[in-house]
Specification:
3-stranded antiparallel sheet, iron, 131 residues, metal-binding, GBBH-like_N, alpha+beta, 5 helices, DUF971 domain-containing protein
Length: 131
């Protein structure tokens, strides 16, 4: 069996805009909540991964997701409100982010501290969503 086939499939995604979180349900019964910030700073895109040399993404504390588009039956494309839209989040990527989020978050904060960088947005802005 390939590692991809060992990965649970996503059965549900629910974006909570106000709290900037994405709830993810898997077919093994597990559910996780990931912040939009974590999803953005760990985007699987070449832009973030720097073609093998990961880029430290900063100033994304208030980032949110504008759109979620299915890609076949194995991934979703997340469109963030900062314009980033090039990462494909496979079920494996989502599961890895979900199950390792505590360590990933601590690593991210340590990288920010080491670079004397910030999570805070460059420009404070109030975003209103109309329903």
């Amino acid at each position: 069996m390939s590692p991809q086939s060992d990965t649970p499939k996503v059965t549900g995604l629910k974006l909570k805009r106000k709290s900037r979180q994405l709830e993810i349900s898997f077919d093994n019964g597990q559910q996780y909540t990931l912040s939009c910030e974590l999803l953005r700073v760990y985007s699987p895109s070449a832009e973030v991964h720097g073609h093998g040399n990961p880029v430290l993404v900063t100033h994304k504390k208030n980032v949110n997701i504008d759109a979620i588009t299915p890609v076949g039956n194995y991934a979703v494309k997340l469109v963030f409100d900062d314009g980033h839209d090039t990462g494909l989040y496979s079920w494996k990527v989502l599961y890895d982010l979900a199950t390792n989020q505590v360590d990933l978050w601590e690593n991210y904060l340590a990288r920010l501290r080491a670079a004397k960088a910030s999570r805070e947005p460059l420009i404070d802005m109030a975003v209103k969503y109309h329903t």
